[in-house]
Each structure stands twice: as structure tokens, then as C-alpha cells.
Amino acid sequence: MTRKLFREDPYQRDAPAVVTAHTAEGGIILDATVFYPTGGGQPGDSGWIEWDSHRLSIATAVNGDANQIVLVPSEPMALPPLGAHVVQHLDWDRRHKHMRIHTALHLLSVAVPFAVTGGAISATHGRLDFNMPDGLDDRNELEEALNQFVESDAQVSDGWITEEELDAAPSLVKTMAVKPPRGAGDIRLVRIGGENDWIDLQPCGGTHVARTGEIGALRIGKIEKKGRMNRRIYLHLDS
Ligand SMILES: [Zn+2]
Questions:
Q1: Taking ligand 1, which is a single-atom ion, which protein residues have CB atoms under 5 Å away?
Q2: Ligand 1 centre distance from Cα of residue 181 (Å)
Q3: Among residues 37, 166, 239, 173, which one has the least CA distance to residue 47?
Q4: Is the pTM of this model over 0.70?
């Protein structure tokens, strides 16, 4: 398995690593990586790796077999050999925008009190699909609520909880907009706000900013009707 450095510290942009495998498709597997793999609506990270006097551009990262993360080169070039010591670097500007949008979507899921059925993230905007029969009453009101969450500069933290601990706290699960997955071992909970007065608490394996103020001003974009029971709401970073 690949050690997920982006889980331990989402602000880590560079890291040394050792090449443990190549995939048949020309991908690279490292023992530890800062590259977030495509998943949960968030695109995989891009960047580059260096070894000796070589530099290889990485287009994206994806999940591979056995909890491994595969770095996908941008062009078919010679790969670093097995056992090579490399240094990996993220396209930080792009990843940080993903972190801002991702955290903003948590806030959107709180401000719109309907079940979320899907979502996606890019470096300029994100969207969530809601199980929501009617349109929004007031989009300005929603935009204001989101920007208040941002201005409150609430702390974003994460921790792990066992299934047994969750079972012992049914009221906790009840307050969560997204129910934790079961049967897969310990669950990572992401909290926005204080220990006992959180804005949002939900299971999530993604990358988040440390405080909501870092998201910056938000703007509601298009609101589309996707079927009789569904609304798609777009959210944009203002800068
Ligand atoms: Zn998240």
C-alpha cells in the first residue's frame, strides 16, 4: 500500500519517496505520496517527479490495486527504475484550489439542507447535486450564508473513529448529512467548527483547507434542474 501523505498533511507539496513498482500501463507507484488520487469528485493531483538529472511530468494520480496510488506520467518517457529515490512535487496552485472548493462544498451541503446525490470539483468551481424537488427560494440568501461561514474563519480538523465508537453515539450519526460507510474499518471524520458546536461533521477522505477563511469569497453559479427531484448547484471561487 502507498502511504497517503496528503492525509497526514494536506499542505505538504514536496516529498522524497522510493519507487516500489511500475504498472503495465506505464504508471509509477511510490512508497509514499503527496499526490491525491482521483476520487470523491476531486481530480487527481498533477505535478512532477525528479531523480538524478531527470524530470518527469505527472498528469494525474489514480487509485490502483491493493491500496496503491498510481502516478500517471504526462508523456511516455523513461520511468525512474525500481528502487530509485525520487522527489515528488505537486502543482500546488491547482491542488490548493481543489482544497478550497472541496471545503466550500462541505459548507454548501450544510447551507442547502437536502440529501446530496453527487458532486464534482475543478480548480475554478465545484457543484453538488441535491435530492431537492423545488428550486431555491433565494440564491442571494444562500450566497450570504456561505460567505458568513467563510468569514467566521472556522477551523477544519479531522480524526478517526471506530465503528464501535460510532455505534455508541447514535445521536452523532443522526447529525451527519452523509452517513459513514460501514464494514470498512475505522472512519475518518472531518469537522468544520468547534468540538461541540460544529458547522459540519461528516466522513470524508479528501483534502481540506485548515480554516474556512482560506476559501475566500464564494459566488453561486448556475442552478440546473436535473430531473424531477434533482437540482445541481454550482459554486465558484471569486478569485
Ligand atoms: Zn471533504
A1: 204, 206
A2: 14
A3: 37
A4: yes
Residue 33 amino acid letter: T
Task: State the CATH number of the domain containing residue 130.
Answer: 3.30.980.10
How many CA atoms are closer than 13 Å to the CA of 149, on its beta-carbon side? 25
What's the CA-to-centroid distance between 18 and ligand 1, angstroms?
28
Residue 133 Cα to ligand 1 midpoint, Å, equals 25
User: So what's the pLDDT on residue 174?
Assistant: 67
- Regarding whether 103 and 130 lie in a shared domain, the answer is yes
Q: End of a domain among 37, 67, 90? A: 90
208 CA to middle of ligand 1, Å?
A: 6
C-alpha closest to that of 73 among 139, 27, 131, 126: 27
Residues 230 and 139 grouped into a single domain: yes
CA angle, residues 31, 37, 199, in degrees to nearest 5: 115
Average pLDDT over residues 139-161: 95
